[in-house]
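Crash report, auto-generated. Payload:
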Amino acid sequence: MTDPAINAPSGTLDLLRPSWTLKLRFFLSENVLFVAGVAVFLAVVFAAIFAPWISPYDPSKINFAHKLWAPGAEHLMGTDALGRDIFSRVVHGARTSLIIGATVLTLSMAIGIPIGLVAGYFGGRLDSFLMRIADVFLAFPPLLLPIAITAMLGAGLFNAMLALAVSWFPWYARIIRSSVIGIRQELYISAAQSMGVGHIRIMLRHALPNSWTPVIVQASMDFGYTILAAASLSFIGIGAKPPTVEWGLMVALSRSKFLDYWWTAACPGLAIFLTVLAVNLIGDGVRDILDPRGRSSR
Amino acid sequence: MLVGSVKAVRDCSMVIGPGEIVGLVGESGSGKSVTASACLGLVPESGRVSGSIEILGREVVGRSDAELTDMRGAKAAMIFQNPGTALNPFFTVGRQLIDIVRRQRKLDSRSARDAALLALKDVRIPDPHTALDRYPHQMSGGQLQRVMIALALACEPALLIADEPTTALDVTVQAQIIVLLRELAREKNLAVLFITHDLGVIASLSDRVAVMYAGTIVESANVTDLFDAPAHPYTCRLLQTIPRLGSGDTRLDAISGQVPDLSRLPPGCPFAPRCEQSTDICRSQEPATRRLGEGRDVACHHANGAADSPPSAVGDVA
Amino acid sequence: MTRYVAQRVAMLGVILFGVMTVTFMLSRILPSSPVEVMLGHRPTPEQVEAAKKLLGLDRPLHEQFVAYLGDIATGNFGESLLTGRPVVSDIADRATATFELTTLAVLLVIFVGVPLGVLSAVNRNSVVDHATRTFSIAGVALPVFLIGMLLQMLFYGSLNWFPLQSRIDSEVLLDFPFEKHTGFYLLDTVLDGNWVALQSAALHLALPVLTLAIASLAVVTRITRNLMIEVLGQDYIRTARAYGVPERVINFRYALKATLVPMLTVIGLTYGFMLGGSVVVEFVFDWPGLGGYVVGAITKNDYPAVMGVTVFLATMYLTINLVIDLLYFAVDPRLRYK
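Recovered output after restart:
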């Protein structure tokens, strides 16, 4: 009994039983931007992890003899006003930025998710109260609250990250809360309650796992914004401080010279741009995959 | 992975004359709404229309939006299924009516306003003056559908295309709208193409009926002939499925099987898989439309007393 | 409707109270006491005690809070540790500079971003559409300070079309002075018929406004595009088309009006973003506004100033959002008539 597929024209076989390579090729062609974003992001992660091995020079090594050299063979991205190799500093900066992004988001979620869970689950006065608090934090124009908090706590990268996390948590609280409210109606929660299962247990085992999707979508879109915000804070002088290597700080340090020595500002700037762009593209892709309703922009 | 095209309408030929109400019946997915959209060139960009549709002697197929502007409304007007969403919620009913009437009939604002009021009176809207200043969300479904009909009539078209206008309404309101449409069609000598899936509505409204299945017209006849002596097996089954009070039936009758997937139609008659009378020829050869008598066409190999005759080539409104 | 207004105003009050609480708590948790900053380095303990008493910092926390609220209500934001003047005066001097900047930027975003988004939606997959979408994606990834510096490099460094920084040439201010009627230089110079100063002010505004606008432009264009696409798919647009309304009218009247409501929200958020972003932009362009004031204050540990500006800007932001909420009534008939 011959397999009829063998006699079919070669292309047809693919359509009848798509192999995983075909599915992958299809996915790649449909989501070019997403794939590009992932590729660039992986490059950044690679740079962050292997920074000490990739950097041709010590990022903090001052060398006045090589001061303000244009990009060339010896220094891929040129040198800054103190003769430090910009490429090495950019590579090390990748570490800083990725850590910032991850830390701020984690902290933000750590604060926001429990608040949202509690608000959504219990509802009523507690819900209103918690949401008012969230509204208060959202009442500040972006960046202003982090600036105020960092100013009070004292400049420094950790304080800046804390400030950003505290300013950003309302979004996650709201998302989880919406999700939980939607799920609260579900029968199995009522069932668990009627069986006397404790509130916390219900929240953790039922409400939370089903609310992950919008949180992931939001986080993937926020990652880029976090890096930008941290860079901005460093730029105005209240975020990372020397000797920390951070891209925003590098641009700030280049301010006195950048008009004549464009690479001192452009190279770290480009690093920020490419990283945030990559992360945003990934975020868009994640959102398209997890929440196809938003796909109207095709 | 979906690749390919779907022929929503494969062969549809009709002629509608002035003052005539033609009903187009079919289940969801039979292609009737697409046919209606095509009459005014409203098929979405991803679709293609071939063949010929002439309204008052002018070709519609292949025309651009700009070319069709003076036909839409003035020559043929369409009313839609969901009156609640058919009007722009951000403008008053009057504003939308007057704007369109002004454009289609080339009137100045005062005359357009008068025309709008007149149309609202024709459709029996109470207190038309206040109605003009209302917003769509302030009116009920039935009222809004009357407004839509008024809009259509105010443009003084030769053809009215009604795409399931009563499906979204209550039964009592449905009856009112149907009566209204019948009266207006007679009064204004309007040609009407009435599309629905409800046989009861067809029976009370149309002069002639065309039955559509899987993108083709399988039978067309005048309404009495169709209901008294249906020729196509699909029509027969449709009529059988109408529940009758007092018949003692305790179960609802339904046609076994499912509407075919239009992207993968088997050869032969599309109804063959579900037809009790299907034979080999039904499954291999698509039946041609044959004339059974005066104004009666059927596309079936087994229709009674069929004589071969070429199907009418165009859908005209004379 | 008045009930809704009352509700919203009450809400504003509650949130404002919350804002005050947050700023109050912030100003009391500093690691270094403002007293020490005021008195200079290494004051004696007696001096510190005396100063604390003077500032009321030795009283219990809730008493301090009530005093703080009272102060704010009467417009007393304390005195700047730097300038010695009441913070309120400093703010008053500099607020118009910031508002001129942000208002112009918002106008730019609305009058360029919205039409671009509409064009993009109406001509999907055209060159304009692809260009706009690319710009949207890229514009959001660039940090505001970098945009500013790039513009400086290009339009000042290379082309020398626009000045590097500041609000107006100091020579122009000396030789062609004008009366500061409103604090908005564009208005004031026109009112005085002082064309030289007007030109200088306008040139100085160009790059900062552009910088502030670009990031928001990217977002607004994208949102407008998506909104328009959604609206254009609605039934009532199909009806308009079915009755021969020409495409231009459909796009720019019927469809656009439907996007107005969500657009209002976006504009509110944009203004907020700009109030925050102005801090960075003012720093880059040495703009004499609130942003520059705040940054200067932070680096000199001038806490009253920082808190004062924060409270002020937060209040502005809340007010703008309230106004927008009320504008919904004007724009959406479904809210007006129940």
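Post-recovery validation: Chain A has 14 helices and no strands.
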